[in-house]
Specification:
This protein has 3 domains: 20-112 and 210-283 and 471-523, Metallo-beta-lactamase, Chain A, CATH 3.60.15.10; 129-200; 290-468, Rossmann fold, CATH 3.40.50.10890. It starts with a helix and ends with a strand. It has 20 helices and 24 strands. It is globular and about 65 Å long. The strands form 5 sheets. Strands 10-5-4-3-2-1-24 form a 7-stranded mixed β-sheet. It has a 7-stranded mixed β-sheet with strand order 11-12-13-14-15-22-23. 45% of the residues are buried. The protein is α/β, with parallel strands linked by helices and 529 residues long.
Length: 529
Amino acid sequence: MKKIVSAVFSLFLFVSAVFAGASVTPYGAASTVSGSCFLLETGNSKFLIDCGLFMYEESSSAGGEPVKLKNLQIQDELIEAEALFLTHAHLDHCGRIPLLIHRGFKGKIYSTQATKELALALFKERNGFDLIERKWFWSRSQREKERCANNGKVIAHWTVSCKKNIKSAEYSDAEISLEDLEKRKNVEFLLCKNCCKEETEKIERQFVTAKYDMEIKISDNLTVKLINAGHVPGSACFIFTIDNKKVLFSGDLGSGYSRFNGEFDIPEKVDLIFMEATYAEYRHKAGMEQYELFRNDLKKALAAGKTVWIPALFFNRTQKVLYELKLMQDDGSLSKKIPVYSISPSANAITALYQEEAAKKKEKSEKSAAGSCWFLDDVYKKGSILPKNVRWQTIGNYDSNMILISSSGDMDKGKSEHLVPKMSARKDVFIMIVNYVSSESNAGLLLQNKKNRSGTKSFAKIKKYNVFSDHADLEMLQKWLSNQDKIMLKLYIIHSNEKNTQNMIKLLKSKGCKRVSGAKAGELIKLGL
């Protein structure tokens, strides 16, 4: 009997020692929202959770290290990781993967099928490759004669296959980032889509897909399970089981108001959580009922003959808006004769993937779809996310009665930035804001009834709608934590700026969570409890 007790006690000490030796180091999304990247170390093994971009709009207002330098920092220990676990395909979670692989990362990339397809689509659309320092080349004749064909930009190439097709090429003097090359040559460059496609196909070989609730055995003492995060199609939380101890990374958690994804799955009891808290409100000033507010305002504006402009994030927000317009057409509250323009190429590429998936309704079965569906059943039953009369091109003017959707949502980049002076100056335009915007952005200034960043006054009516949010508030975070032991659970706040982190810590402690703190970038967090 003594031998059995001794053996059990020895095993307990071994398990505790293994977990105690494990650690997590945040390399991003700690005291800041973007740049998601976490290194999990267990003994001699290293694993990454996400490798995302730091966003310019966030970094510019926060001060500190320039965002460009932060995005270029890929430490050796990240490159040496055995595998990367990708929570979802937003660029602040996946945008540095091309750079990571270029620097030498050889590991597998684990994700859902939806996340894989969406991330690869973003890479093909020229995202992530501009950070890589290369010896670029371009056509001399295209630089001299054909810039107007690409909005004044010259196509920058880097692959051998493109090199064969350019008779008269110019080269950068040394390996350099595209941003620095533009400054040196005084030329605006645009990444070659064929080069991006070729590079993306190489990245694809490192992906391994998994379904929700599927357990992946990494080693004898380490397994990983994915659960639905309800944020965007394919978004997942990861539960790492190290011997008998569990560590949970939330990724980003959905608001619960999505007609695409519904609510997240509530995770099992774990020992340690790294939880997103992008917003610190107790409850969004929205609910499912705000869809009706959005619809009513849209109908009134169109009935008054106005042009409705909806600047929206190109990934998921644009698609949510398009689907809402389809539902309005289906129930007769929106005329199918009203033209809908979606003019962002990147948004349209993502929309095409959403539409392709929604159209698979006849191919879906309960058995094959379990754990791998992008959407709720209602979307598949519809067989489409698109309204009638949707058009995918830019036109000369937007003066007629129509709905116009453009990227970006804050009006500071892309098609939206170019539309600001013209659209905001018109009294017959109604602007509907469907995502978070900073107070310093064009959209933020217009919502405050201030002049836009170019200094011109706005005469358009503008209004914001929170129901399209992709992030959970405190009320939903409490629901997500409902299976946890709030006394024993150790919880770190991530994906949140310093102000919201401190607010969320206070709110969670007031709700009974005793061991809550904010994660710090570069801090080695020992997992021993």
